Amino acid sequence: MKFKMQDKQNQLIERITDKHLVVGVDIAQQFHVARAVNFRGIVVGDPITFPNNEEGFSSLLIWINNLKRLHKLEAAIVGMEPTGHYWINLSKWLMKQDIEVVTVNPHLVKRNKENRDNTQSKSDKKDALVIADMVKNGYYAFVRNTSESFEKLRVLMSNRDVIVKRLVSSINQLNRWVDIVFPELRQVFKDITAKGAIATLRLFPSPMELGSMKPEEIVAGWKSLMKRQPGLKKAYLLLNVARKSVGTRQALDAYKFHLEQLLEEYDLAIQQLERVELAIKDELPKIPFANKLLMIKGISEISLAG
User: Fold this and answer.
1) What gap in Å lies between CA 212 and CA 237, rounded to an integer?
2) Tell me: the pLDDT tens digits for 225-256?
3) Sheet harboring 75-80: ordered strands across?
4) pLDDT (tens digit per residue) in 79-108
5) How distant, in Å, are the alpha carbons of 3, 13, 267, 286 from that of 10?
6) 5-145 homologous superfamily
7) What CA–CA distance (Å, rounded) separates 289 from 304?
8) Average pLDDT for residues 102-131, to the nearest whole number?
9) Fold: same for 5-145 and 149-301
10) The whole model's pTM is what?
């Protein structure tokens, strides 16, 4: 029998019984707003605004328990948007109190704003009510507890994403710098991030510096930074293109200062990327079936962690 999406939603709706208090929370950085409805969508109680701390979370729990007692309800389900990171601490705290927590799609929240008052107006109290309605109607997903290893892997991969973005940004800026000061460098090194290209940018970045140098001096400079360095042929080519360079000759001191900082940022990103990937590879074997999945051809440790 084919399982349809509608069947899944029906099951989610059926989980909300007449004994449930359905709570919607509009998440913010400092203060959250919660509203509650019953299984039919009738508003229950007054809204509550509470701070994003232990005292605020406790006041929310007291509010939920009072509404359950007043309306003779036995269970509570709390829905929230998983936007940003401000919802994480609240969701974990509630789950420790044996309160079921679910998430709703932020895009669907925006589309359902007219359901209550036929307007697209926005307020924290209205958004909290819209979220509660969506949970009541079965438009939610479960929040599941993960193991320590999964949580570590999630944090490490998120960290890696940030570092990769910074690395890409620094490479783009290095390419821009080369385009302005020494565009002919690409005739010698196709990739600006190649070891030879980076070594050249460190030692003699501008064509004017190369004008008075000999090929042997360039090779000696490369040798001081690399175990396997380019030979005399590359050095002659570098000198030839430097003499014909159309790169700018103004404000070279400022450009060199800028290049130093770009290379520092590039080096830092490379070092941090190596460290975080090493931490990911150390944590990955603790995940069930990870070693077996790595035996599949074409799956790397980083791709599997992702």
Assistant:
1) 15
2) 888 878 888 888 888 888 888 888 899 899 99
3) 43-51, 31-37, 20-26, 75-80, 100-103, 141-142
4) 999 878 889 999 999 999 999 999 998 888
5) 12, 5, 54, 37
6) YqgF/RNase H-like domain (3.30.420.140)
7) 11
8) 79
9) no
10) 0.75
Decide: 63 and 3 in contact? Cβ < 8 Å: no
Decide which of 295 and 46 is more confident.
46
CATH architecture of 149-301: Orthogonal Bundle (1.10)
The residue count of the chain comes to 306
What value, to the nearest 5°, has the Cα angle with vertex 289 and ends 288 and 292?
155
Beta strands in 160-280 (DSSP E): none
Tally of CA atoms within 13 A in the half-sphere of 210 that contains its CB: 27
What are the residue boundaries of the structural domains of the chain, listed by start?
5-145, 149-301
> Strand 75-80 to strand 100-103: parallel, antiparallel, or no bridges (unpaired)?
parallel
CA distance 59 to 42: 22
What's the pLDDT score for residue 298?
A: 87
Cβ atoms < 10 Å from Cβ of 185: 22
Residue reference for tokens 């940030």: 162
Q: What is the DSSP string of 60-79?
A: HHHHHHHHHHHTT--EEEEE
Residues whose CB is less than 8 angstroms from the CB of residue 87 and which lie 6 or more positions away in sequence, other chains included: 25, 27, 80, 81, 103
Alpha-carbon distance 266 to 274, whole Å? 12
Residue 156 contacts residue 252 (beta carbons within 8 Å):
no
d(CA 136, CA 202): 62
Chain centroid to CA 75: how far?
34
Tell me the one-letter amino acid at 263. L
Distance CA(125)–CA(127), nearest Å, equals 6
